[in-house]
Amino acid sequence: MKTLTRFPSRPTLARLAVLAAFAMPMASLQAQAVDNQRQAYDIPAGPLDRVLNSFARRAGVLLSFDPAITHDRQTTGLSGRYTVTEGFATLLSGSGLQAVKNADGGYALAATATSGSNSNAVLPTVTITESADPTAPYAGGLVARGGSLGVLGTASVMDTPFSTTNYTSQGIEDVQARAIGDVIANDASVRNTNGNGGFGDSYQIRGFTMSANDVAFNGLYGMVPLTRMPIAMVERIEVLKGPGTLMYGMGPAGGVGGAVNLVSKRAHEDPISSVTATYLSNSQFGLKGDIGRRFGENQEWGIRVNALYADGNTGLSGSNQQQSMGSVGLDYNGSRVRWSLDAYTQHEDTRNFRPQFSLGTGLTSVPDAPSGKSNLYPGNTMQSDDKAVASRLEVDINDTLTAYGAVGYHVAQSAQNFPRATITSVQGATSVTNGYYDQKVTSTSADIGLRTRFNTGGIKHTLIAGANMLDQQTDYFYQMSPTSVTSNLYTPVSLGAINFARGTETPQSQSRLTSFALTDTVQMFDDRLRISAGLRRQQVYNHSLTTASQTSNTTAISPVLGVVVKPVESLSLYANYTAALTAGGFAGAQYANAGQAFAPSKSKQYETGAKVDWGRVTTTAAVFQIEQKNSSTEVINGLTYATQNGRARIRGLELAGYGEILRGLRFNASATFFDTVQSHTAGGATDGKEVGAVPGNNFNLGLDWDTPWLQGLALNTRVTRTGSMWYNNTNALKVPGWTRVDAGARYVTKTAGQVVTYRANIENLFDKNYWVMQNGYVGTSSGRTFVLSAQVDF
């Protein structure tokens, strides 16, 4: 890790690039006009004015008209691939109206020469086939109709016996997401457990911690950075709540609350060319590029290239963050063969990242959270580098049998000052120890299988046999100074000096997770009943490579059963039972028992719920129960040990709704209520107590509104409420809950013939100070943050 060096800072170049993108009309860009490009649309039937506005917004053109001429008119919507001219013509067919292009490139509605005086006529029916693609956007465009379920294949939300949410590229871009958590935290059952600008991302799903290492990339584990994924290369984020072992295999970090799969960007049928200039307060400027093209007689070959560079000071006092990323996605889509290859490299260099603290055993209450802009570890640094490549191949052997396979390789490195800090008094006194934690993780991942479809007596079957493997070796160097410095949350002092030489990472542990799965999904009674059942044989091999080596090797068979009943097409009633074997992992370097191998544990989930598609809005309700071995920390003689002690049971009620509630008003709302309990703990010490770090309730509300007074202008807001929770399993200290409000706007216009999208978001609008809770630690929230961008599509 000594070879990691900081890139030369180029703030002047970055600032000039941003200013140019915001101020210049991009007149020198030569490209095909948006009007002549065919794009895919899936816009449901509805009032003509709303459908036209939705089409114009997605097409990236300006549209103006007198609301009186569209009053009470209806249209059946639009589904398929159209140019702007073809789309308008189809939507307005038979209405007596036409879209006329103006000199400025925008469009206006006008009466055709043969139109009559009946302005309240209903448009004639246009026969349009609804998109069968379950990954197509749902009403409002922020989430998809469905997504991938790993070995179970791709299905719509209404046909899935699990709780899933699939965020689209629009849902990612409109909030100017910089990390996965900026998107998936739209669900009340999901929370970030690190503030933006921390040493790495981590999440909580259904009350269980999930690290970035448990995020899959195109269905493969081990391909995502240990710190944070460069989201600029991500097209879609698929979230499955509950254990996903059967569908995805085992995550290396052992998370059971849910599974997250990232889908990389692919070239579309129409050319993609965009440049985006970004600004993040305090003064971080950046530039992103996105280019996609398809080639071949039938456009079977595709390439998508993304690049990112950002540098400057963040909202944390004294913090500077530099990021760079480059990715390429190749694909071939033939009549019988589909192939893809993705490769990326990313580098991050941060001076002064956001800290975390443990709470001292003598505390009687949790101190007030300091400002999210305060630098509580002055002098810390972190660098990370990732290089990964992954490829997937699917071959249709015949009309009913498909073979597939995927393989990936990833090397992740990080080097950081790793302060260890404890809050020792309610007045904010802290004890801070400085040191080094350098890490290297090498991962090889593979997935193969056969999928066949057949009928038996009128019953449809989709039978899948598959196997996957993940091999990870972890090397690290970890050493802390023998002395600590006294600091304070409200008047922090610099970190103590490190008085020893930085060593080299040495092998610490090896994990190999292998499994074989067999599943069958049957459809009966005109697809009103779907049953998915399967078994996965799992083997977990953990081996400590230290001098006190330990090995664990466990095998188990994990079942899954899911049922969907659709009394009517718009109503799905579902239930599932899943069990999983979870890798026990190793105690982290920061614990007194670092490197200790924990035995794998079994978890199980029961869930039932209902989903209703109202046409433009989908509502869901679910109740669940998950049980797993309880992970916690224990302080013995002043030293903190990682432990597994007893069982944790988490029950929950989830309520959610999303879609387009009114014309031009998109929403995403959810609420989750938790009930937790511990059992079978050592000596019964914490039996009957609540599970630490799990809130009692969470709420989310997001709104996105197309304003009526200015075409192309949309406003958005998100309100997030997280309830109070116990700091740990002893239930001695309670961390207060918090409410955060975000707000934003975007404006789509045309400049010099190019479509330009301006976005502005304010995160933590009221600059709320609060603790972000992770099992065993509290961290500071991000303060008020301004995020600006200008995107030019040419």
From TrEMBL:
UniProt signal peptide: 1-33
Instruction: Give the domain of life.
Output: Bacteria
The protein's name: TonB-dependent receptor
Membrane topology (UniProt): Multi-pass membrane protein
Q: Mind telling me which residue stretches traverse the membrane in this protein? A: none
The cellular location(s) given in this protein's UniProt record come to:
Cell outer membrane
Alphabetically sorted, this entry's keywords are: Cell outer membrane, Ion transport, Iron, Iron transport, Membrane, Receptor, Signal, TonB box, Transmembrane, Transmembrane beta strand, Transport
User: Does Protease show up as a keyword for this record?
Assistant: no
Instruction: Indicate the family of this protein.
Output: Belongs to the TonB-dependent receptor family.
- Give residue ranges for domain Secretin/TonB short N-terminal: 61-112
Q: Where is it chiefly localized?
A: membrane
The short sequence motif called TonB C-terminal box sits at 777-794
Any Pfam family: Plug
